[in-house]
Design a protein that fits this description.
CATH topology: Rossmann fold
Radius of gyration: 17 Å
Distance between the termini: 46 Å
Low-confidence stretches: none
Strand order of the largest sheet: 2-3-1-4-5
CATH superfamily: P-loop containing nucleotide triphosphate hydrolases
Structural class: alpha/beta
Number of helices: 8
CATH architecture: 3-Layer(aba) Sandwich
Number of domains: 1
CATH class: Alpha Beta
Strand content: 5-15%
Number of strands: 5
Oligomer: single chain
Largest sheet: 5 strands, parallel
Order of helices and strands: HEHEHHEHEHHEH
Length: 199
């Protein structure tokens, strides 16, 4: 059954995207971090956010755990719910981008199809960043104890253990977070932002 309302009409904004960009000094867009749990998404996202903010950027992190406390608080972790979670986040990130803000999205987002959806929604200023770290490396970190619970059967459909992760084939940036420092990765991400977002 389709519950989508038919009685809706889009309303145009009275501020052009170029005006928003000019006021901020940079374009809006989405930097999408994807990778296994423990690959460093949240750590790197919040480090980058603070660095960019301190250098005059309008920037905001959409973090997987934080979103699960509110926007997606009614979703579980089945494949269907995961896809719906990413759809919702993609729409929100797209709104941030339209507002002239750089949205840093930090989500496992294990499926290629859902990341492509995020790219379509965000538009041309979308940059996929793959944080490359093996299950073995992530499991040694296990900052939240999730791998241990998954191995014990306490968490079902855990990405990398009993649910798949489809590695990006053409990410704009691949960061080997197994061997590179947070500072090193932040510098490379900042260079990407300066090149593609700064006016």
């Amino acid at each position: 059954m389709n519950h989508k309302s038919q009685n809706i009409t889009r309303v145009d904004h009275r501020i052009a995207a170029e005006e928003r960009h000019a006021k901020a000094g940079h374009r809006g867009g989405v930097v999408w971090f994807t990778g296994l749990s423990g690959s460093g998404k949240s750590t790197l996202a919040f480090t980058l956010e603070k660095h960019l903010f301190d250098h005059g950027y309008q920037v905001y992190v959409l973090d997987g755990d934080n979103v699960r406390h509110g926007l997606s608080g009614n979703l579980g972790f089945s494949e269907q719910d995961r896809r719906e979670n990413i759809r919702r986040v993609s729409e929100v990130a797209g709104l941030f981008a339209e507002a002239g803000i750089i949205a840093i999205a930090a989500f496992i987002s294990p499926y290629h199809e859902e990341r492509q959806l995020a790219r379509r929604i965000a538009g041309k200023h979308f940059f996929e960043v793959f944080l490359s770290a093996s299950v073995e490396v992530c499991e040694t970190r296990d900052p939240k104890g999730l791998y241990q619970k998954a191995r014990a059967g306490q968490i079902k459909d855990f990405t990398g253990i009993d649910a798949p992760y489809e590695q990006p084939a053409r990410a704009e940036l691949v960061l080997d977070t197994a061997t590179r420092s947070v500072e090193d990765c932040t510098q490379e991400l900042t260079a990407l932002i300066e090149k593609h977002f700064r006016l």
